[in-house]
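[job 4471] stage=fold_predict status=RUNNING
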Amino acid sequence: MSRKRARKREGVLTEDLLVATLVEFLSEDGYRVRLEVPNMGQCADVVCTRNRWVTFFEAKLRNWQRALEQCRAHQSVADFVCVALSVKNVPDRLERELDEAGYGLIVCDVKAGRCEWLVHPRRNRQVWPPQRKRLAAMMRGINHES
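[job 4471] inference complete, writing structure tokens
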């Protein structure tokens, strides 16, 4: 089931606004985007495809440690795993952990409606074909965002 369209509440930054900004950025970059995709007992915030590659995103306003925990579950099915954050400064520790894991990072300025890649992900070589096949079948039933 798709996340409801984000509504801007006066002065309040929500994860829905972050996801909406990320979706627009990825769509403009040629990705086909789906929201709230079930995987291994949890839902990925954003899953996008381009050509044969599948990229999973966990979006967080602050708690990047939680995003990294969630990303680990996606390694069995995603070619690329990423975090999207709405922060002004990226902690050095986060950059080190992203590099070690091979995850990407997009930082979004929700108020300005912009995102940028700070760390590009490395291709994940731990994809488990039977689980990936289940994901592909399930994703066929989820509509793309426009």
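[job 4471] summary: Confidence is low (pLDDT under 50) at residues 1-10.
[job 4471] exit 0
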